[in-house]
Amino acid sequence: MANDFLTLGIRVDFNDILKNNGISDPTEIQVEAIPKLLKGEDLIAQSQTGTGKTLAFVLPMLQKINVASTYIQGLIITPTRELAIQITKEIEKYAPTANVNILSLYGGQDVERQIKRLKGSPHLVIGTPGRIADHLLRKTLEFSHVSMLVLDEADVMLNMGFMREVEYVIKMTPGRRQTMLFSATIPRGLKTLAAHYMKKPSQIKIQSRHVTLDEIKELVVETSEEGKIETLSSIISQVNPFLAIVFCKTKARASEVNEALISHGFASDELHGDLSQSKRNQVMRRFRDAKLQILVATDIAARGLDIEGVSHIFNYDIPQDVDSYIHRIGRTGRAGQTGVAYTFVTSKDRESLRAIELGINRKIEELITEDSPRKKFQKSRPSAAFKDASKTKMSSFKRGAFEKEQSARRSPSKKSKRPRTTNKRSK
Protein backbone atom coordinates (compact mmCIF):
# COMPACT_ATOMS: atom_id res chain seq x y z
CA MET A 1 0.00 0.00 0.00
CA ALA A 2 1.21 3.49 -0.79
CA ASN A 3 2.63 5.41 2.16
CA ASP A 4 0.81 8.64 1.45
CA PHE A 5 -1.49 10.44 -0.98
CA LEU A 6 1.40 12.17 -2.75
CA THR A 7 2.58 8.78 -3.96
CA LEU A 8 -0.85 8.23 -5.51
CA GLY A 9 -0.61 11.50 -7.45
CA ILE A 10 -2.62 13.79 -5.17
CA ARG A 11 -1.56 17.45 -5.13
CA VAL A 12 0.51 18.84 -2.28
CA ASP A 13 -2.17 21.36 -1.22
CA PHE A 14 -4.83 18.63 -1.05
CA ASN A 15 -2.42 16.42 0.87
CA ASP A 16 -1.91 19.21 3.40
CA ILE A 17 -5.69 19.51 3.91
CA LEU A 18 -5.92 15.76 4.37
CA LYS A 19 -3.25 15.86 7.07
CA ASN A 20 -5.00 18.78 8.77
CA ASN A 21 -8.12 16.61 8.89
CA GLY A 22 -6.18 13.75 10.46
CA ILE A 23 -5.91 11.69 7.26
CA SER A 24 -2.39 10.60 6.38
CA ASP A 25 -2.65 6.98 5.19
CA PRO A 26 -4.83 6.15 2.18
CA THR A 27 -7.29 3.28 2.47
CA GLU A 28 -7.22 0.25 0.19
CA ILE A 29 -9.86 1.58 -2.19
CA GLN A 30 -8.07 4.94 -2.40
CA VAL A 31 -4.81 3.20 -3.25
CA GLU A 32 -6.50 1.15 -5.96
CA ALA A 33 -8.82 3.79 -7.42
CA ILE A 34 -7.03 7.16 -7.35
CA PRO A 35 -4.24 6.37 -9.87
CA LYS A 36 -6.74 4.81 -12.31
CA LEU A 37 -9.12 7.77 -12.04
CA LEU A 38 -6.33 10.30 -12.50
CA LYS A 39 -5.50 8.48 -15.74
CA GLY A 40 -9.10 8.92 -16.91
CA GLU A 41 -10.13 5.25 -16.78
CA ASP A 42 -13.73 4.16 -16.30
CA LEU A 43 -14.07 2.30 -13.02
CA ILE A 44 -16.40 -0.15 -11.30
CA ALA A 45 -15.54 -0.20 -7.59
CA GLN A 46 -17.28 -2.63 -5.28
CA SER A 47 -16.84 -1.77 -1.62
CA GLN A 48 -18.83 -1.51 1.57
CA THR A 49 -19.42 1.72 3.42
CA GLY A 50 -16.64 2.94 5.68
CA THR A 51 -13.83 2.17 3.23
CA GLY A 52 -13.08 5.78 2.21
CA LYS A 53 -14.60 5.63 -1.26
CA THR A 54 -15.83 9.25 -1.25
CA LEU A 55 -12.30 10.65 -1.22
CA ALA A 56 -11.32 8.01 -3.77
CA PHE A 57 -13.39 9.77 -6.44
CA VAL A 58 -13.62 13.33 -5.04
CA LEU A 59 -9.87 14.06 -5.01
CA PRO A 60 -9.21 13.01 -8.64
CA MET A 61 -12.28 14.92 -9.83
CA LEU A 62 -11.21 18.14 -8.12
CA GLN A 63 -7.71 17.83 -9.56
CA LYS A 64 -8.95 17.36 -13.11
CA ILE A 65 -11.48 20.22 -13.22
CA ASN A 66 -10.50 23.19 -15.36
CA VAL A 67 -11.46 26.16 -13.17
CA ALA A 68 -11.04 28.58 -16.10
CA SER A 69 -14.09 27.00 -17.72
CA THR A 70 -17.63 28.11 -16.80
CA TYR A 71 -19.21 24.75 -17.67
CA ILE A 72 -20.26 21.86 -15.43
CA GLN A 73 -17.51 19.28 -15.77
CA GLY A 74 -18.25 16.83 -12.96
CA LEU A 75 -21.49 15.17 -11.86
CA ILE A 76 -22.02 12.97 -8.79
CA ILE A 77 -25.38 11.16 -8.51
CA THR A 78 -26.43 9.75 -5.11
CA PRO A 79 -29.61 7.92 -4.05
CA THR A 80 -30.54 10.10 -1.05
CA ARG A 81 -30.55 13.74 -0.01
CA GLU A 82 -28.55 12.93 3.12
CA LEU A 83 -25.74 11.36 1.11
CA ALA A 84 -25.72 14.28 -1.33
CA ILE A 85 -25.38 16.68 1.61
CA GLN A 86 -22.62 14.61 3.18
CA ILE A 87 -20.58 14.38 -0.04
CA THR A 88 -21.03 18.12 -0.56
CA LYS A 89 -19.68 18.81 2.94
CA GLU A 90 -16.68 16.59 2.22
CA ILE A 91 -15.95 18.37 -1.06
CA GLU A 92 -16.25 21.77 0.63
CA LYS A 93 -13.08 20.98 2.59
CA TYR A 94 -11.03 20.92 -0.62
CA ALA A 95 -12.94 22.89 -3.28
CA PRO A 96 -11.93 26.42 -2.12
CA THR A 97 -8.25 25.52 -2.38
CA ALA A 98 -8.80 24.47 -5.99
CA ASN A 99 -11.18 27.39 -6.77
CA VAL A 100 -13.82 24.85 -7.78
CA ASN A 101 -17.46 25.96 -7.61
CA ILE A 102 -19.82 23.23 -6.40
CA LEU A 103 -23.60 22.93 -6.14
CA SER A 104 -25.86 20.29 -4.60
CA LEU A 105 -29.31 19.57 -6.06
CA TYR A 106 -31.90 17.47 -4.24
CA GLY A 107 -35.59 17.40 -3.43
CA GLY A 108 -36.98 19.48 -0.60
CA GLN A 109 -35.07 22.58 -1.70
CA ASP A 110 -36.72 25.52 -3.45
CA VAL A 111 -36.42 24.93 -7.21
CA GLU A 112 -36.26 28.63 -8.08
CA ARG A 113 -33.43 29.14 -5.65
CA GLN A 114 -31.57 26.22 -7.24
CA ILE A 115 -32.11 27.71 -10.70
CA LYS A 116 -30.64 31.00 -9.49
CA ARG A 117 -27.59 29.22 -8.06
CA LEU A 118 -27.10 27.30 -11.29
CA LYS A 119 -26.42 30.63 -12.98
CA GLY A 120 -23.28 30.89 -10.85
CA SER A 121 -21.45 28.52 -13.22
CA PRO A 122 -20.73 25.51 -10.96
CA HIS A 123 -17.92 23.19 -12.03
CA LEU A 124 -19.21 20.22 -10.05
CA VAL A 125 -22.81 19.17 -9.28
CA ILE A 126 -23.84 16.68 -6.58
CA GLY A 127 -27.46 15.55 -6.53
CA THR A 128 -30.21 12.97 -6.46
CA PRO A 129 -31.58 11.41 -9.68
CA GLY A 130 -35.07 12.87 -9.48
CA ARG A 131 -34.06 16.48 -8.90
CA ILE A 132 -31.28 16.37 -11.52
CA ALA A 133 -33.69 14.90 -14.09
CA ASP A 134 -36.24 17.59 -13.19
CA HIS A 135 -33.74 20.37 -13.94
CA LEU A 136 -32.80 18.73 -17.23
CA LEU A 137 -36.46 18.64 -18.26
CA ARG A 138 -36.81 22.31 -17.27
CA LYS A 139 -33.68 23.01 -19.35
CA THR A 140 -32.13 24.77 -16.35
CA LEU A 141 -29.26 22.28 -16.34
CA GLU A 142 -26.94 21.40 -19.20
CA PHE A 143 -24.39 18.60 -19.25
CA SER A 144 -22.79 18.86 -22.69
CA HIS A 145 -19.35 19.51 -21.14
CA VAL A 146 -19.50 16.89 -18.36
CA SER A 147 -16.31 14.86 -18.53
CA MET A 148 -16.63 12.96 -15.22
CA LEU A 149 -19.71 11.10 -13.94
CA VAL A 150 -19.98 9.25 -10.62
CA LEU A 151 -22.81 6.89 -9.67
CA ASP A 152 -22.43 6.51 -5.90
CA GLU A 153 -24.26 3.76 -3.98
CA ALA A 154 -25.50 2.57 -7.36
CA ASP A 155 -27.16 -0.58 -6.01
CA VAL A 156 -29.31 1.56 -3.70
CA MET A 157 -30.45 3.67 -6.65
CA LEU A 158 -31.38 0.46 -8.43
CA ASN A 159 -33.30 -0.86 -5.41
CA MET A 160 -35.10 2.46 -4.97
CA GLY A 161 -36.32 2.39 -8.55
CA PHE A 162 -34.22 5.29 -9.83
CA MET A 163 -32.67 3.55 -12.83
CA ARG A 164 -34.98 5.25 -15.34
CA GLU A 165 -33.92 8.69 -14.09
CA VAL A 166 -30.27 7.64 -13.89
CA GLU A 167 -30.25 6.42 -17.48
CA TYR A 168 -31.96 9.60 -18.63
CA VAL A 169 -29.26 11.71 -16.93
CA ILE A 170 -26.46 9.56 -18.37
CA LYS A 171 -27.84 10.00 -21.88
CA MET A 172 -27.72 13.77 -21.43
CA THR A 173 -23.93 13.66 -20.89
CA PRO A 174 -21.27 13.25 -23.62
CA GLY A 175 -20.35 9.71 -24.63
CA ARG A 176 -16.66 10.54 -24.18
CA ARG A 177 -17.04 11.12 -20.43
CA GLN A 178 -15.25 9.16 -17.70
CA THR A 179 -17.79 7.05 -15.77
CA MET A 180 -17.24 5.83 -12.21
CA LEU A 181 -19.59 3.37 -10.52
CA PHE A 182 -19.30 2.78 -6.77
CA SER A 183 -21.51 0.16 -5.15
CA ALA A 184 -21.57 -2.31 -2.26
CA THR A 185 -22.98 -4.99 -4.55
CA ILE A 186 -23.10 -5.41 -8.32
CA PRO A 187 -26.49 -6.94 -9.18
CA ARG A 188 -27.52 -7.86 -12.71
CA GLY A 189 -29.16 -4.48 -13.36
CA LEU A 190 -25.89 -2.65 -12.68
CA LYS A 191 -23.92 -5.04 -14.86
CA THR A 192 -26.33 -4.27 -17.71
CA LEU A 193 -26.02 -0.53 -17.12
CA ALA A 194 -22.22 -0.75 -17.04
CA ALA A 195 -22.18 -2.71 -20.30
CA HIS A 196 -24.27 -0.01 -22.02
CA TYR A 197 -22.60 3.12 -20.72
CA MET A 198 -19.02 2.35 -19.66
CA LYS A 199 -15.87 1.96 -21.76
CA LYS A 200 -13.69 -1.03 -20.81
CA PRO A 201 -13.92 -0.20 -17.09
CA SER A 202 -11.27 -1.28 -14.62
CA GLN A 203 -12.76 -3.27 -11.76
CA ILE A 204 -11.91 -3.11 -8.06
CA LYS A 205 -13.42 -5.26 -5.33
CA ILE A 206 -12.46 -4.38 -1.79
CA GLN A 207 -12.94 -7.09 0.80
CA SER A 208 -14.07 -4.67 3.47
CA ARG A 209 -15.54 -6.88 6.17
CA HIS A 210 -12.55 -6.21 8.41
CA VAL A 211 -12.75 -2.45 7.76
CA THR A 212 -16.40 -2.40 8.72
CA LEU A 213 -16.65 -4.94 11.52
CA ASP A 214 -13.35 -5.33 13.35
CA GLU A 215 -13.94 -2.43 15.74
CA ILE A 216 -17.57 -3.36 16.43
CA LYS A 217 -18.81 -5.61 19.23
CA GLU A 218 -21.79 -7.50 17.75
CA LEU A 219 -24.55 -8.93 19.94
CA VAL A 220 -27.84 -10.73 19.31
CA VAL A 221 -30.70 -9.95 21.69
CA GLU A 222 -33.42 -12.59 21.72
CA THR A 223 -36.73 -11.00 22.58
CA SER A 224 -40.44 -11.08 21.83
CA GLU A 225 -42.26 -8.63 19.59
CA GLU A 226 -44.25 -7.39 22.59
CA GLY A 227 -41.18 -6.98 24.75
CA LYS A 228 -38.95 -5.19 22.23
CA ILE A 229 -39.44 -1.61 23.38
CA GLU A 230 -38.91 -2.44 27.06
CA THR A 231 -35.80 -4.43 26.19
CA LEU A 232 -34.49 -1.56 24.07
CA SER A 233 -35.16 0.97 26.84
CA SER A 234 -33.50 -1.26 29.42
CA ILE A 235 -30.33 -1.72 27.36
CA ILE A 236 -30.10 2.00 26.57
CA SER A 237 -30.45 2.79 30.28
CA GLN A 238 -27.70 0.28 31.09
CA VAL A 239 -25.10 1.31 28.51
CA ASN A 240 -26.03 5.02 28.25
CA PRO A 241 -24.73 5.44 24.67
CA PHE A 242 -23.18 8.71 23.57
CA LEU A 243 -24.97 8.64 20.21
CA ALA A 244 -27.12 5.70 19.10
CA ILE A 245 -29.06 4.84 15.94
CA VAL A 246 -32.09 2.56 16.16
CA PHE A 247 -32.99 0.99 12.81
CA CYS A 248 -36.60 0.12 11.95
CA LYS A 249 -38.07 -1.51 8.85
CA THR A 250 -40.78 1.09 8.08
CA LYS A 251 -41.52 4.78 8.55
CA ALA A 252 -44.54 4.02 10.75
CA ARG A 253 -42.43 1.74 12.90
CA ALA A 254 -39.74 4.39 13.32
CA SER A 255 -42.36 6.92 14.47
CA GLU A 256 -43.83 4.40 16.91
CA VAL A 257 -40.46 3.52 18.45
CA ASN A 258 -39.41 7.17 18.64
CA GLU A 259 -42.61 8.08 20.51
CA ALA A 260 -42.03 5.21 22.93
CA LEU A 261 -38.44 6.26 23.63
CA ILE A 262 -39.50 9.86 24.22
CA SER A 263 -42.15 8.61 26.66
CA HIS A 264 -39.38 6.75 28.50
CA GLY A 265 -37.51 10.03 28.91
CA PHE A 266 -34.83 9.66 26.22
CA ALA A 267 -33.63 12.48 23.96
CA SER A 268 -34.79 10.88 20.72
CA ASP A 269 -36.03 11.86 17.27
CA GLU A 270 -36.86 10.12 14.00
CA LEU A 271 -35.46 10.18 10.46
CA HIS A 272 -37.32 8.80 7.45
CA GLY A 273 -38.66 9.74 4.03
CA ASP A 274 -41.97 11.17 5.21
CA LEU A 275 -40.27 14.14 6.88
CA SER A 276 -39.77 17.43 5.06
CA GLN A 277 -36.22 18.25 4.01
CA SER A 278 -36.00 21.07 6.55
CA LYS A 279 -37.06 18.68 9.32
CA ARG A 280 -34.56 16.05 8.19
CA ASN A 281 -31.79 18.64 8.15
CA GLN A 282 -32.79 19.83 11.61
CA VAL A 283 -32.81 16.30 13.04
CA MET A 284 -29.40 15.48 11.55
CA ARG A 285 -27.91 18.75 12.80
CA ARG A 286 -29.15 18.12 16.35
CA PHE A 287 -27.85 14.53 16.25
CA ARG A 288 -24.43 15.56 14.96
CA ASP A 289 -24.24 18.23 17.68
CA ALA A 290 -25.10 15.61 20.34
CA LYS A 291 -28.29 17.46 21.27
CA LEU A 292 -30.07 14.18 20.59
CA GLN A 293 -28.86 10.92 22.08
CA ILE A 294 -30.91 8.59 19.90
CA LEU A 295 -31.85 8.67 16.22
CA VAL A 296 -34.63 6.28 15.18
CA ALA A 297 -34.32 5.71 11.45
CA THR A 298 -35.30 3.64 8.48
CA ASP A 299 -32.59 2.35 6.13
CA ILE A 300 -32.43 5.79 4.53
CA ALA A 301 -29.79 6.51 7.20
CA ALA A 302 -27.81 3.31 6.64
CA ARG A 303 -26.05 4.33 3.45
CA GLY A 304 -23.22 6.79 3.41
CA LEU A 305 -23.95 8.82 6.54
CA ASP A 306 -20.74 9.44 8.44
CA ILE A 307 -21.55 10.83 11.88
CA GLU A 308 -18.72 11.20 14.35
CA GLY A 309 -19.34 9.70 17.76
CA VAL A 310 -22.01 7.07 17.03
CA SER A 311 -21.21 4.54 19.75
CA HIS A 312 -24.15 2.12 19.48
CA ILE A 313 -26.39 0.64 16.78
CA PHE A 314 -29.68 -1.12 17.52
CA ASN A 315 -31.28 -3.26 14.83
CA TYR A 316 -34.76 -3.04 16.30
CA ASP A 317 -36.02 -4.87 13.22
CA ILE A 318 -33.58 -7.40 11.79
CA PRO A 319 -31.98 -6.33 8.47
CA GLN A 320 -33.30 -7.98 5.32
CA ASP A 321 -29.88 -9.35 4.27
CA VAL A 322 -26.20 -9.37 5.16
CA ASP A 323 -25.40 -6.28 3.08
CA SER A 324 -28.05 -4.26 4.91
CA TYR A 325 -26.68 -5.59 8.20
CA ILE A 326 -23.13 -4.50 7.39
CA HIS A 327 -24.25 -1.09 6.21
CA ARG A 328 -26.35 -0.49 9.30
CA ILE A 329 -23.75 -1.46 11.87
CA GLY A 330 -21.11 0.34 9.82
CA ARG A 331 -22.49 3.61 11.20
CA THR A 332 -20.40 2.89 14.32
CA GLY A 333 -16.80 1.74 14.76
CA ARG A 334 -15.57 4.35 12.27
CA ALA A 335 -12.29 6.27 12.00
CA GLY A 336 -10.49 4.11 14.55
CA GLN A 337 -13.25 4.26 17.15
CA THR A 338 -15.03 1.25 18.61
CA GLY A 339 -18.75 0.57 18.70
CA VAL A 340 -21.42 -1.90 19.73
CA ALA A 341 -24.23 -3.28 17.55
CA TYR A 342 -27.30 -5.02 18.97
CA THR A 343 -29.61 -7.04 16.72
CA PHE A 344 -33.04 -7.87 18.13
CA VAL A 345 -34.29 -11.32 17.12
CA THR A 346 -37.73 -12.84 17.64
CA SER A 347 -38.70 -16.43 16.92
CA LYS A 348 -39.68 -15.55 13.33
CA ASP A 349 -36.29 -13.91 12.67
CA ARG A 350 -34.13 -17.01 13.17
CA GLU A 351 -33.74 -17.77 9.45
CA SER A 352 -32.73 -14.16 8.74
CA LEU A 353 -30.18 -14.30 11.55
CA ARG A 354 -28.68 -17.51 10.16
CA ALA A 355 -28.36 -15.89 6.73
CA ILE A 356 -26.53 -12.91 8.25
CA GLU A 357 -24.19 -15.17 10.24
CA LEU A 358 -23.42 -17.16 7.10
CA GLY A 359 -22.71 -13.90 5.27
CA ILE A 360 -20.19 -12.69 7.85
CA ASN A 361 -18.88 -16.24 8.34
CA ARG A 362 -19.32 -16.45 12.09
CA LYS A 363 -21.87 -16.77 14.85
CA ILE A 364 -22.87 -13.57 16.66
CA GLU A 365 -22.66 -13.65 20.44
CA GLU A 366 -26.03 -13.70 22.23
CA LEU A 367 -26.82 -11.27 25.04
CA ILE A 368 -29.25 -12.65 27.61
CA THR A 369 -31.88 -10.15 28.74
CA GLU A 370 -34.86 -10.41 31.06
CA ASP A 371 -37.12 -10.72 28.02
CA SER A 372 -35.20 -13.65 26.52
CA PRO A 373 -36.38 -17.22 27.15
CA ARG A 374 -33.52 -17.91 29.56
CA LYS A 375 -34.17 -14.74 31.59
CA LYS A 376 -30.69 -14.55 33.08
CA PHE A 377 -30.36 -10.83 32.76
CA GLN A 378 -29.48 -9.13 36.06
CA LYS A 379 -29.74 -5.36 36.14
CA SER A 380 -27.67 -5.14 39.32
CA ARG A 381 -24.72 -6.88 37.65
CA PRO A 382 -24.21 -5.67 34.05
CA SER A 383 -22.90 -8.33 31.72
CA ALA A 384 -19.45 -8.24 30.16
CA ALA A 385 -21.10 -7.10 26.93
CA PHE A 386 -22.53 -4.08 28.74
CA LYS A 387 -19.13 -3.35 30.26
CA ASP A 388 -17.54 -3.56 26.82
CA ALA A 389 -20.18 -1.22 25.48
CA SER A 390 -19.47 1.39 28.13
CA LYS A 391 -15.82 1.52 27.04
CA THR A 392 -16.45 2.56 23.46
CA LYS A 393 -14.04 5.25 22.33
CA MET A 394 -15.14 8.76 21.65
CA SER A 395 -13.25 11.51 19.85
CA SER A 396 -11.86 14.48 21.72
CA PHE A 397 -13.96 16.66 19.41
CA LYS A 398 -17.14 15.21 20.94
CA ARG A 399 -15.91 14.76 24.52
CA GLY A 400 -16.90 18.23 25.67
CA ALA A 401 -20.36 17.88 24.19
CA PHE A 402 -20.68 14.44 25.76
CA GLU A 403 -19.86 15.67 29.24
CA LYS A 404 -22.29 18.55 28.84
CA GLU A 405 -25.06 16.26 27.63
CA GLN A 406 -24.35 13.72 30.37
CA SER A 407 -24.72 16.45 32.97
CA ALA A 408 -27.98 17.59 31.39
CA ARG A 409 -29.32 14.03 31.35
CA ARG A 410 -28.84 13.54 35.08
CA SER A 411 -31.93 14.25 37.14
CA PRO A 412 -32.19 14.72 40.90
CA SER A 413 -35.40 12.69 40.82
CA LYS A 414 -35.01 9.02 41.73
CA LYS A 415 -37.97 8.12 39.57
CA SER A 416 -36.29 9.03 36.32
CA LYS A 417 -32.62 9.12 35.42
CA ARG A 418 -33.20 11.43 32.47
CA PRO A 419 -35.37 14.47 32.01
CA ARG A 420 -38.21 14.06 29.57
CA THR A 421 -37.54 15.75 26.27
CA THR A 422 -39.70 18.33 24.65
CA ASN A 423 -38.92 17.12 21.12
CA LYS A 424 -41.77 17.89 18.78
CA ARG A 425 -42.32 15.63 15.83
CA SER A 426 -43.06 17.13 12.44
CA LYS A 427 -46.67 16.52 11.56
Compute the number of strand runs.
14
CATH architecture of the largest domain: 3-Layer(aba) Sandwich
Rg from alpha-carbon coordinates: 22 Å
Span between termini: 51 Å
Structural class: alpha/beta
Stretches where pLDDT is under 50 for at least 5 consecutive residues are: 376-383, 389-399, 409-427
CATH class of the largest domain equals Alpha Beta
What is the overall shape? Answer: globular
| Number of domain modules | 2
Query: What is the overall number of helices?
Result: 19
Largest sheet composition: 7 strands, parallel
In CATH terms, the superfamily of the largest domain is P-loop containing nucleotide triphosphate hydrolases
Output the CATH topology of the largest domain. Rossmann fold
What fraction strand?
15-25%
User: How do the strands line up in the largest sheet?
Assistant: 3-4-2-5-6-1-7
Helix content: 40-55%
Q: Mean pLDDT, as a whole number?
A: 84
